[in-house]
Amino acid sequence: MADPPRRRFRRRGEPDGPRPLGEGIEAAVERLGGGDAAAVGALFGRWEEIAGSALAEHVVPIRMTGGVLHVAADHASWATQVRTLAPSLLRRVNEVTGLVPERLDVTVRRS
To answer: Which of 44, 47, 48, 73 has the fewest CB atoms within 10 Å, i.e. the most exposed one?
Structure first.
């Protein structure tokens, strides 16, 4: 006879399985940088409005941790551009989302 399937556990020893949607959203937001779920959702959902359409085509937010907004650019030239625009971009993030990023970290990830 086959062994029964092993139970998987989440981080704190809680059994894995169905859980309320709110818990899942909170866990996802925590992985993306924690804080207010609506604000983090606005950062990702309204990125084109925040960054502008041209920049948003080439630079995307990854997460926000410890006051640092981490973004990925698809080319070094776009990374340079977003670093130059960092002060105004961070101000715009605050205006649209209420988040207060202190600095911007840019990674180049080629498609």
So the answer is: 48
